[in-house]
Amino acid sequence: MNRISLKSAIVLVLGGMVVASQTPTHAQFGGLLGGGKKSSADKGGAVISKEDFGKTSGEVTGKVLAARIAFLDSKAKMMEALGIKTDSMAKASEALQAVKGNADAGKTVEALKDSSKVSEEANKEFEAKMAESKDLSAESKAKFAEGGAKFVDGVLLEHAQIGTIKKLADQGQALVKSSGLMEKMGVMALVKPVTTLVTMVPGDVREGAETLSKIMKFAKSQNVEILGADKVQAKLGAL
Q: pLDDT by residue (tens digit) across 156-196?
């Protein structure tokens, strides 16, 4: 009897091992090894890695920076064409240098916010000067056309970033949620510039489109052609 009991016991143990070996590993460990469902910013996709998020964020920030440089540079050129030589133009030039001098994404975004405020001040004077509708010289018309074309480039470049920025903001939220307690603060700092951009860029584009509408109206009154204006109308509709 004892021998039969021992043999039965061995068979039961071996049978249990075979059943266990046929059970998927992720089921044995409750999905902790990656078989479980992951939180995601994209439908059906995994959370973006910090490295990929940081790389894409840096690329988008660089393009928004390039757009802002185009705005400030074009504004300076058009203000020069209109004969504006005031403190607001000097501040716009300072803002241009500030945004050019930052490599860090967080600092760059802060510089972009500051330059936006300065640009608003210069914009009021710029629009007031255009409203005077004085005839420009041939040289001034050429400068205005050059500045207007750069402004168009800025609007189109910044507009092109909106979709990517919104997607990055969603991915950033998922990245924060999926990060461990020890790394959460660092991840939040990585995501912060993007959350700032997602609130800033669409408004900048709207404001840029409104300003461009006034630029085009003034240019038409001066018989000045703004290259690329038709591209903006195709992208953003009639201005």
A: 999 999 999 999 999 999 988 888 888 888 889 889 989 98
Helix or strand or coil: residue 184? helix
Domain count, the chain: 1
In a domain, 31, yes or no: no
Cα separation, 95 vs 91, in Å, equals 6
Question: Do 13 and 24 contact (CB within 8 A), yes or no?
Answer: no
Range of the domain at 218: 50-236
Which CATH number covers residue 142?
1.20.58
Look at phi and psi of residue 52 and say left if phi exceeds 0, alpha if psi is from -120 to 50, else beta.
alpha
Using an 8 Å Cβ cutoff, are 147 and 78 in contact?
A: yes
- What is the model's pTM? 0.71
Whether 158 maps to a domain, the answer reads yes
Give me the helix-helix angle, 138-159 and 229-236, nearest 10°. 30
Return d(Cα 6, Cα 43) in angstroms, integer. 54
Q: Is 21 within the bounds of a domain? A: no
Average pLDDT over residues 128-133: 84
- Within-domain flag for 37: no
Q: How many helices (H) does the chain have, and how many strands (E)?
A: 9, 0
Per-residue pLDDT tens over the stretch 194-233: 998 998 899 889 888 888 989 999 999 999 999 887 777 6
User: Using CA atoms, how far apart are residues 151 and 72, in angstroms rounded to an integer?
Assistant: 8
Chain-centre distance of CA 26, in angstroms?
A: 38
